[in-house]
Amino acid sequence: MSRTDLSAATALCGLVLLSAVAGSVPAHAQSAYKEAPPGPGDADAPGKPSDNRFAGPSPFAPQAPGVNAANIPDGPPAEPSEATPAVEQVSSHPAHDDWPAYGRDTDATRFSPLEQITPENVGRLSRAFVYHTGSKPAPGQVNKWAAETTPIKVGDGLYMCSAMNDIVKLDPATGKEVWRHDAGVKYASIPYTAACKGVVYYTSSSVPEGQPCHNRILEGTLDMRLIEVDADTGKLCEGFGYHGQVNLMKGMGESVPGFVSMTAPPPIVNGAIVVNHEVLDGQRRWAPSGLIRGYDAETGKFLWAWDVNRPDQHGEPAEGQHYSRGTPNSWATMTGDNGLGLVYVPTGNSAADYYSAMRSPEENKVSSAIVALDVKTGSPRWVFQTVHKDVWDYDIGSQPTMIDFPGQDGPVPALVVPTKRGQTFVLDRRDGKPLLPVEERPAPLDTDVKGDPRSPTQPWSVGMPRLGLPDLKESDMWGMSPIDQLFCRLKFRRAKYEGEFTAPSVERPWIEYPGYNGGSDWGSMAYDPRTGVLIANWNVTPMYDQLVTRKKADALGLMPLDDPNFKPGGGGAEGNGAMADTPYGIVVSPFWNQYTHMMCNKPPYGMITAIDMHTRKVLWQHPLGSARANGPWGVPTYLPLTIGTPNNGGPVVTAGGVVFVAATTDNMLHAFDAKSGKEVWNDVLPGGGQATPMTYEYKGKQYVAIMAGGHHFMMTPVSDALVVYALPDGK
Fold it and tell me: Which residues form the signal peptide (predicted)?
């Protein structure tokens, strides 16, 4: 279907509900968008960052009850130490039939060598089993569920976590539950989303084979614990931490349940568990720290900390002190390099995403960047920044992928870095230097935000195809009727828009395009190392933003999560945010018609692309996702038109030549021919497929699994179903 036919068809049929547009970045709202325009934002003088009302909390401020969820004794502050020497893990060289890590292997390729399912026979896939995790909102609970889980498979076990961190082992052929570990996470500890992207398989170097906890399953939890259980029984590993658990809130200072959480599986690099966490966005400048820490995979012992504003202090804080507050956090899945002894950390912004005047120089250097940390010491080896002085919430949500990049003198160890801007950077992972050209291009500077100038340039990866569409124009505005189109044209004219990196504004809204949900978000990409083909699904969804002064933020009821006056709906960067401790709050919504909940820019809103990494040419590209479950006012059209919907979750690619991806708001699992890009199969899921699928083989049969848990913010149906497919028995 051509772009012209696509636009005509979608306009005729009254397309896509895009209350789903902003996806699942942990830039967190407590409720759906409210479109009440704030008006001019200068209701009072903004004040100065030095005002005492913008000061940070006392270092002696206590943590609220329930923050240390398991009441794990802290013990005295620990000094840096080294990890127990590790054995090689199964994810380094996965067995042909396994999927032993979140990205299948330590390189995070999301590539499987399985060949049983092909473009020719994929149409015969049928459901082998459906497993129900039991994790869904209880009666009376606000829906915050979005499981985002990718299971792993090692040997005779299919392992996964529920949205609330219960760990299970399933029979890979039948889905029968072998064991279950109840993590005991409480509803109050859910941040923006109840999500657990995956678990980690670890083989001990100190416990003999055949003994309990020789093989272990590890996860980080929503209430900030590390948990290790025996892979055969699901029982806690008593020799790890405090009876199998480590308290990650130690040294974090003042906080409340739900402010800080882990949703991504931590990498284990040369025996060190490297831990990051998300900090609820939009709350306050002096939010809990975004530091990165290392723990011994055998014992749970603290190894080191990287705290941006305490760069030479790698131990835990002294009694009565805490890690530096408000620093850039990393919530994405990290990638570990055992050979180089590095972990590649995708970072976000300092707290208060849309205002940068109060950030330290050290914070500005490492925000929205890849930071390569030495896993022995926690010290940075190199930093590559993708956005300078980010005030658009362009944190890096994707897991980087390690590849062998063809160089003049042979393969170069490289890192592929997807971004929300649709810029894909390819770096030498030894030193962080670009392997493909990167240009610093002029960026808009005009802003009425006092004392917060923008960077004059921003980096563009000109050596890779951009995953994006041209800048918006007034003529791109559309709707189901001429009145809708006129409404969106007026809304476009009312806003400030100077292309990508339009600077924030107080007096009127500004359009952020790309929006903070992509390009590429947490689903990342898939890479076939045999062919050198990179597969990416991505978003085309602008946002409508405006800063408001502290007085107006208070009038709008924007309070941070830890304020006694906080009410659900009180703010986060996927909606209105308090940004307390700063002169401003933020009002954010999709760039849509708030009456029909249809986007103001014409479709598509989601795409899928295949890139040949040898030539850096696009092999094929087209819209991803149909209109069947989408429509104005939330009414599904049930039309099978491929119009391109917002999507969250990544692709996988197989040696059989099939790309599997769900992610879309049509609640389907899609299969594409990896060579042609033609869609060769799909199936309607029992809930939204906002997760990355995986595939494995067991007893000679290939299976494909997808968590169809839905997503509260994408407004896809919530479910607790893991759906697993296989070809029918027989020839």
Answer: 1-29
Catalytic (active-site) positions: 393
Closest CA to 543 of 493, 486, 475, 599: 599
Taking residues 371-396, report their average pLDDT: 98
Residue 583 in this model has a pLDDT that exceeds 70: yes
The confidence score (pLDDT) of residue 37 equals 53
Scan for tokens 């330290």, then name that residue.
Answer: 360
| Cα–Cα distance measured from residue 156 to residue 170, given in angstroms and rounded to the nearest whole number | 9
User: What is the DSSP annotation of 189-239?
Assistant: G--S-B-----EEEE-SSSPTTSTTSEEEEEE-TTSEEEEEETTT--B-TT
Please tell me the distance from the alpha carbon of residue 177 to that of residue 194, in angstroms, as a whole number.
22
Edge-to-edge strand order for the sheet containing 335-337? 335-337, 342-346, 369-374, 380-385
Phi, psi at 494, each rounded to 5°: -65, -30
* Cβ–Cβ under 8 Å, residues 110 and 525: yes
**Segment 106-112 mean pLDDT:** 98
Q: In angstroms, rounded to a whole number, what is the distance separating the alpha carbons of residues 99 and 725?
A: 15
**CB burial class (10 A; 0-12, 13-18, 19+) of residue 56?**
middle
**Three-class SS string for 35-74?**
CCCCCCCCCCCCCCCCCHHHCCCCCCCCCCCCCCCCCCCC
pLDDT digits (tens, 9 = 90+) for 606-658: 999 999 999 999 999 999 999 998 878 777 888 888 999 999 999 999 999 99
d(CA 468, CA 450): 31
Nearest Cα residue to 415 out of 478, 248, 425: 425
Q: What is the pLDDT of residues 158-198, one digit of tens each?
A: 999 999 999 999 999 999 999 999 999 999 999 989 999 99
How many Å from the N-terminal Cα to the C-terminal Cα in the chain? Answer: 35
Bridge partners of 274? 294
Residues in CB range of 396: below 8 A, 6 or more apart: 332, 346, 347, 348, 368, 369, 370, 386, 417, 418, 419, 420
- 553 three-class SS: helix
3-state secondary structure of 109: coil
User: 């960077």: which residue's tokens?
Assistant: 455
What single string gives the DSSP state of each residue in 261-321? E--SPPPEETTEEEE-BEE-TTSBTTPSP--EEEEETTT--EEEEE-TTSTT--SPPPTT-
CA separation for the pair 177, 352 (Å, rounded) = 43
Residue 21 has pLDDT above 90, yes or no: no
Q: How far apart are CA 144 and CA 24, in angstroms?
A: 11
Q: What is the pLDDT of residue 633?
A: 77
| DSSP 8-state symbol, 123 | G
**Listing from the earlier edge strand, what are the strands of the sheet with 215-220?**
200-203, 215-220, 225-230, 245-247
Whether the per-residue pLDDT at 247 is higher than 60: the answer is yes
Q: Give yes or no for a contact between 691 and 709, defined as CB atoms under 8 angstroms apart.
A: yes
pLDDT at 11: 36
Q: C-alpha angle 354/357/360, rounded to 5°?
A: 110
Separation between Cα atoms, residue 710 and residue 425, nearest integer Å: 30
Cα separation, 607 vs 625, whole angstroms: 8
Question: In this structure, what DSSP letter does residue 522 have?
Answer: T
CA–CA dist 188, 186 (Å, integer): 5
Averaged over 142-154, what is the pLDDT? Answer: 96
Q: Evaluate the omega torsion of the peptide bond into residue 519 and state whether it is cis, within 30 degrees of 0.
A: yes
Residue 615 contacts by C-beta under 8 Å, 6 or more apart in sequence?
A: none
Relative to beta strand 651-654, strand 111-112 is: parallel
3-state secondary structure of 613: coil
Q: What is the mean pLDDT of residues 471-494?
A: 94
Number of alpha helices (DSSP H) and beta strands (DSSP E) in the chain: 4, 41
Domains and CATH numbers, the chain: 90-726 (2.140.10.10)
The answer to whether 195 and 164 are in contact (CB under 8 A) is no
